[in-house]
Design brief:
Blueprint (H helix, E strand, L loop, with lengths): L2 H12 L5 H16 L6 H8 L4 H22 L6 H24 L5 H12 L7 H21 L6
Helix pairs in contact: 1-2, 1-4, 1-5, 1-7, 2-5, 3-4, 4-5
Length: 156
Amino acid sequence: MFLVGHTAIGLAVASVTASPVGAFVLGLASHYAADAIPHGDEFVGRWAKRGNEPGRVAAVAALDGLIAMSIVLAFLPRAGQLSVVAAAVVGAVLPDVLWGLELLSDRRMLRGLGRFHKWIHNHFRIERPRALWLTLQFVLAALVWYGLFTGSFRIS
């Protein structure tokens, strides 16, 4: 799942707590829960790793991260505690950031967590039509962002 979707879902689930620690934990848990659902972007990971070209991984992550952070910055005036928002975002994107750093550095930093992330992401081994699943992923993210912007999910 793209960082835009992970960030939105992490903020939505973190909206049930006023604690930065709770927001981080819920954001982190939401990452793995979302990755367990087939979401159609598996081909992006394979493309990014093809030919062992770190620039591909960096380009995809930079664009995705830039879009996610732009939306978060637009959301901040409507949010409550900055610490809760920051903790939720960090928790929601941390597994993918660590995965990307491992790919770019060719070093395994958190072996068990990395194996779990890979396992949860590929557990069902289901590949659906890209267009359908990518569309559903973006629709879900858009609905969650809409809910965050309109106050359906409120970060207190």
